[in-house]
Amino acid sequence: MLDLKKVARQIKEEGLYSFIYNEMKEVSKKEELSEEDILLLLKENPKFLDDYKTLNTQSEISNIQLIEQKIELEDSEECKRLKEKLNKNRKKLLSLEAYEKEPDHMLYAVWIGSVVVFLIFVIHNLVVLYTYWYEHYPLFVYGMYLLSIAGGVFFYRKKVKNHWEKYKQFQLIAKETKTLIKEGKETGCLKKIYE
């Protein structure tokens, strides 16, 4: 849901994206790039668009550049319906934006694994400092460790499954939104689409 012309302009003019611009200059072996050159490179090499999206995500800038459509009194019923649906999809896409990409299994594993290790560390220290459970109930203590690990594995699987479901939902809505935009352009219902 990006306006590629806006992306090209930002890469050329804004300092935040200067490393992408410099990489593009290296790839194209030119000293300066026009917005048309950048547009061409964005289409030829998807890595640059991925870098742009990642940088936006890290900078807490949305990659959903659709504007909310104003429904005018003179709009036909078809245009009103289309704009309402587009606005509804825009809100859904914004809420699901974190799931735009497939789940990063390693990221979830490191995040949840760190929590489990910390939990085991806390349990161990509490048992050692305040009880004699290692001497009298060692199986109970080790059982708590196993339970923590099993809980971590369960939580990891649940988070990855949830991410996949939301990723698929995002992709479906994005596809439907692109169709609506195309339809809106063809019928003349949409005058301005992106910010």
Q: What is the subunit arrangement here?
A: single chain
Secondary-structure-based class equals: mainly alpha
The N- and C-terminal alpha carbons lie at a distance of 11 Å
Strand composition percent? under 5%
Q: Catalogue the unreliable spans.
A: none
Secondary structure tally: strands: 0
Specify the helix fraction band.
over 70%
Rg is 25 Å
Largest sheet: none
**Strand and helix order:** HHHHHHHH
Mean pLDDT: 94
Question: Which outline best applies?
Answer: elongated
Q: Helical segment tally? A: 8
Protein name: 2TM domain-containing protein
Transmembrane segments: 108-133, 139-156
Keywords: Membrane, Transmembrane, Transmembrane helix
